[in-house]
Design brief:
0% strand; mainly alpha; single chain
Length: 237
């Protein structure tokens, strides 16, 4: 038990140190590009960045007793992982106007409309999404998180998104079961993809925004489905 606790402690400490160095470098770079000056106190600036222009730091919070060098990365990562729900809260105050299946993925919307020669309606479809509606309030989804839920809700509403999450949970479970019981390589890949999706629920629709994630996720879901068919099993044998 002591060994396990020690390993967990070392891993957590190493991650915090790595995260702090990475975020400090990013903030110092942004500060220099915007002001042309070298940042003298990156820890204080990191605490300000961690508020993401919306959070208010409580005078007595769980990290308040820590020195700034330790407090800054802990405050930043806490805000980083949770501020997407601020965007979700703003979106839930807006009226639902379906984007007809084109709101959940920028990559899909742009490329599908390009293929069918309807790029002129891309902007109109985007205007119907929750991302656009909260953008007009100063919450730009490309710069801050707004959670996974507003992407699907742009197409099927928040009630429909609850059903979608249940479906995702179901396939997440059977992909894990298929990995263990059937040793299905495609199920294993899909399981890790679902892990990524769920870990990013508080941030964005991670698996369907970029072309790389969209195509790989779609292809492996298809291959996993095919691997369960009788035809696939006959070919394999």
């Amino acid at each position: 038990k002591i060994k396990i606790i020690s390993i967990i402690f070392i891993l957590c400490t190493s991650f915090i140190v790595y995260y702090k160095i990475g975020m400090n470098n990013r903030i110092e770079k942004d500060y220099f590009e915007s002001t042309g000056e070298i940042l003298k106190d990156p820890d204080s600036e990191m605490l300000e960045y961690g508020k993401f222009s919306s959070a208010i730091e409580k005078e007595k919070n769980i990290f308040s007793w820590l020195p700034n060098k330790i407090k800054s990365p802990l405050m930043y990562i806490t805000s980083y992982l949770t501020h997407g729900y601020m965007g979700l809260s703003m979106a839930m105050e807006e009226k639902f106007t379906s984007s007809y299946g084109f709101g959940f993925s920028t990559f899909f919307r742009h490329n599908f409309l390009k293929i069918i020669g309807k790029t002129e309606i891309e902007e109109k479809l985007y205007e119907r999404t929750y991302m656009n509606k909260i953008h007009s309030k100063g919450w730009y989804t490309g710069m801050v998180w707004s959670s996974f839920f507003i992407f699907s809700a742009s197409d099927i509403g928040f009630v429909g998104t609850l059903v979608l999450v249940l479906i995702i949970g179901y396939f997440f479970a059977i992909s894990w079961k298929d990995t263990l019981v059937s040793k299905n390589a495609f199920a294993c890949i899909c399981f890790f993809n679902f892990c990524t999706m769920i870990c990013y629920f508080s941030a964005n629709n991670q698996l369907f925004q970029s072309g790389e994630f969209f195509m790989s996720t779609t292809v492996y879901l298809f291959l996993w489905a095919m691997s369960k068919t009788t035809l696939f099993k006959k070919v394999k044998n």
